[in-house]
Design a protein that fits this description.
371 residues, alpha/beta, 2 domains, 15 helices, binds fe (ii) ion
C-alpha cells in the first residue's frame, strides 16, 4: 500500500523578491499568472522573464481551446521552465505546459500514459484551497468532445512547490471562503478514504484542525482577523493536498460535479452544498472505524457531543459561507435523478474512495435531502 506521495520539493518565502532571488528567475523562464498578480508582486522586480496572463485566453476553468492557445504562445518564447503563480485554473494549465513540446491537448490525452516532462515546473498557489501544487492531475474541459476529464501523469508533478503567504493578502473573502472549504473537504474525504494511511491522516487531521480553528477565530473576531491567519490556511490547504494526493477525494466531490457543471457553482461552494449531506449518509449506513475517529476529533474541536458534530460543523461553516439548498442554485427536482445517474456513470474514480459504497438510490437520496 502506498503510504504517501511527496514529490515536489516544498519551499516557503516571505516575499516574491526572496523567491525570485533563490530561484534565479530570469531568461528561459515563463511566468503564467494573472495581470493583477504580476502588477502587484513581480513587475517591480524587473525580471528578464516571459509572461503570459491566463485571463487573456478566456475566463473560468481551463478548456482545451484556452490551453492550446497558451501552449502555442508559450512555444514562441522558447521557455525552459514554467512558473505558475495563481489559483486552480493557472496551476492546471501549467501542469499541461510542462509536458507539451508542441503537442495539443488532444495529442496529450491520446498519449497520457507516455507523457514526459519537457519543461521545468514551479507552482506558487495564490488561494488556500486546491492543494493542487502537490498533485499531478489537471482537469480540462474538453469542449471538442463535450466532457470534463482529468489528465494525470507522473511527469506533471511540479519540481518545486512554493508557498508565499503574502500573495494571498488581496484574496477576496468569498474566494477565501470557497477555497478553504474545498481544502477542508479534501482533508475530510481523504481521511475517510479506504486509501488513507497513518501518513495521509497525519496531514489531513492537522489540516482539519487548522482550518476549523481559523474559522472559529474569524467567527469571533470578524473578517478583519483573516490576514494574520492566511499563512495557516495556505499551509493547511497544502497539507490537505498531500493527503488527498495519495488517499483521494470521494463522494462529496463526485456529487458536486453535476451541480458545478450545469449551474456553474464554484468548486468549493458546490462541495460545501454536498458536504454534510454525504457525511450524514455515511453515518446512517455505518458509524465505526474512520468515521467514528473523525467524529470524535470534530467533537473535540467543535466542543459538542459526537452525535451533533455535523450540525455544529454546519453552524460554524455558515459563518464563513452561508449554505444554500440545491433549489436555490436553480436545480429542479427533475435534475436530481439525472445528477445521480451521471455520478454513477462518470465519477467511478472518486466513488471508489467512499467510506462506504453508495449506490444510485443512495446518491439520489442525498441529493433529495439537500434539495
Ligand atoms: Fe476540491
Amino acid at each position: 500500500m502506498k503510504e504517501i506521495i511527496f514529490r515536489p520539493e516544498l519551499y516557503e518565502f516571505e516575499s516574491c523578491a526572496d523567491f525570485a532571488r533563490e530561484f534565479q528567475l530570469g531568461e528561459g523562464d515563463l511566468i503564467l499568472t494573472n495581470a493583477f498578480l504580476f502588477e502587484d508582486y513581480f513587475k517591480g522586480l524587473d525580471l528578464p522573464v516571459s509572461t503570459l496572463f491566463q485571463e487573456r485566453y478566456g475566463a473560468g476553468e481551463p478548456t482545451d481551446l484556452m490551453v492550446d492557445a497558451i501552449l502555442e504562445d508559450a512555444a514562441k518564447t522558447g521557455c525552459k521552465r514554467i512558473i505558475a503563480v495563481g489559483g486552480g485554473t493557472i496551476i492546471d494549465i501549467a501542469k499541461v505546459m510542462a509536458v507539451s513540446s508542441g503537442e495539443t491537448v488532444d495529442d496529450l490525452y491520446a498519449k497520457a500514459a507516455a507523457l514526459q516532462k519537457k519543461r521545468g515546473l514551479v507552482i506558487v498557489p495564490t488561494t488556500c484551497g486546491t492543494g493542487s501544487e502537490m498533485t499531478n492531475i489537471s482537469i480540462i474541459n474538453r469542449t471538442r468532445i463535450g466532457t470534463k476529464m482529468g489528465l494525470v501523469s507522473e511527469a506533471m508533478f511540479a519540481d518545486q512547490a512554493v508557498l508565499i503567504p503574502a500573495l494571498l493578502t488581496g484574496l477576496p473573502f468569498p474566494v477565501f471562503a470557497t477555497s478553504s472549504i474545498d481544502a477542508l473537504v479534501h482533508a475530510v474525504e481523504s481521511s475517510l478514504s479506504p486509501k488513507a494511511t497513518p501518513y495521509t491522516r497525519l496531514f489531513g487531521y492537522k489540516a482539519i484542525e487548522m482550518i476549523l480553528r481559523g474559522y472559529q477565530r474569524l467567527t469571533k473576531e470578524g473578517p478583519d482577523a483573516l490576514v494574520p491567519l492566511l499563512r495557516d490556511f495556505l499551509i493547511a490547504s497544502n497539507y490537505a493536498g498531500l493527503a488527498f494526493g495519495t488517499a483521494g477525494c470521494a463522494a462529496v466531490h463526485a456529487l458536486s460535479y453535476p451541480l458545478g457543471g450545469k449551474y456553474h457553482v464554484p468548486h468549493g461552494e458546490s462541495n460545501y452544498a454536498m458536504f454534510t449531506g454525504v457525511l450524514k449518509a455515511y453515518q446512517s449506513i455505518r458509524r465505526d472505524g474512520a468515521l467514528q475517529e473523525l467524529n470524535a476529533y470534530l467533537s473535540k474541536l467543535l466542543g459538542c457531543e459526537e452525535a451533533k458534530v455535523y450540525d455544529a460543523l454546519e453552524t460554524l461553516l455558515n459563518h464563513i459561507l452561508p449554505k444554500k439548498p440545491l433549489h436555490a442554485y436553480g436545480v429542479t427536482e427533475a435534475d436530481l435523478p439525472e445528477f445521480a445517474r451521471s455520478v454513477m456513470e462518470t465519477q467511478g474514480r472518486l466513488m471508489g474512495n467512499n467510506f462506504v459504497p453508495l449506490d444510485e438510490a443512495q446518491v439520489l437520496h442525498i441529493y433529495q435531502s439537500l434539495y
